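note to self: dont lose this again. the chain is below, predicted strucutre after it. 95 aa total, dont forget to put it in the shared folder this time
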Amino acid sequence: MENEIWADIENWQDYEVSNFGRVVKYDVLQSKEVKHIWSPTNNEFMVALVRDNKKTLFKVSRLVITAFLGRQKGKIVYKDGDSKNHTLNNLEYAK
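---
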């Protein structure tokens, strides 16, 4: 994707997230995109990151905003109101 920028996911050395909300895992020989899972309970996309055969679920929006804007307390706001749009330019921390 044009203008896509990648950043490391904090504390997950084999994973990166892009400003478009894509998540990849790097193995020895290849990178593999991690599938997004829709969570009706949270009303947003989640991804399962795996370490030592244990899965941990993360909100895609939280991974994106933390990787690019840093970790802050508070709710994440979707500027356009669409929780399926987890691109960086659509996310901000509540004021």
